Amino acid sequence: MPFTGVRVWLDFVTEAEETALVAQMDAWPWTDSQSGRRKQDFGPKANFKKKKVKAANFTGLPALARPLIPRLQALTADLKDFVPVEQCHLDYEPSRGAAIVPHFDDFWLWGERLITLNLLSTTFLCFQLPDEPDALEIAVPLPPRSLLEVKGVARMAWHHAVHRQDVSQRRIAMTWRELTPEFLSGERQAEGHALLDLAATYTGLPM
Ligand SMILES: O=C(O)CCC(=O)C(=O)O
């Protein structure tokens, strides 16, 4: 199995921007999540098993993302049409043993490209094949303030994880997800476009 589809850009934000982003996040409540993580979500509420999605309490992406989205769209010609409909903040602290187990992100609602801004400390996003997790692991280093894109084979065929031992200091991941073609131009485009309009208000608060 080839390993392609991962790119990392260093220094996507400055140290001053990082400090301001984290201060803004910490001014909002964090919600306890699985495996010692805490989270803040800005996005539609989805039932992945029943394939149902609704805006529910979604009030848009947060204002802090407004300058970052055009910046990431300008990184490559390929990212020009990346329009996020969800932003999720995950807070990892070593004292809570925070981690995320190997998994795929959903394929029905979330599109091919996952984009993550890594804040505060270095960690590794580790990739392994679901059928042979012990055979090989590819650890992608993520320095603070770097931006990661996962797409293609890395997104579709490889599980990704953050291991507990790779969280040595507080670390925050800010992840943006796009919609699948079904919601952009296919059968469910009316639903998809309503969610995109909401996302683009940049008036969101964590749900
Ligand atoms: O913390 C990370 O960088 C990965 C997060 C992740 O895998 C997810 O949100 O599905």
UniProtKB/TrEMBL annotation:
- An example Gene Ontology CC term for this record: midbody
Q: Would you tell me the protein name for this molecule?
A: Fe2OG dioxygenase domain-containing protein
Top-level taxon in the UniProt lineage:
Eukaryota
One MF term from GO for this chain? demethylase activity
A biological process (GO) of this protein is: demethylation
Signal peptide extent: none
Gene3D superfamilies tied to this protein:
Alpha-ketoglutarate-dependent dioxygenase AlkB-like (2.60.120.590)
Q: Which organism is it from?
A: Monosiga brevicollis (Choanoflagellate)
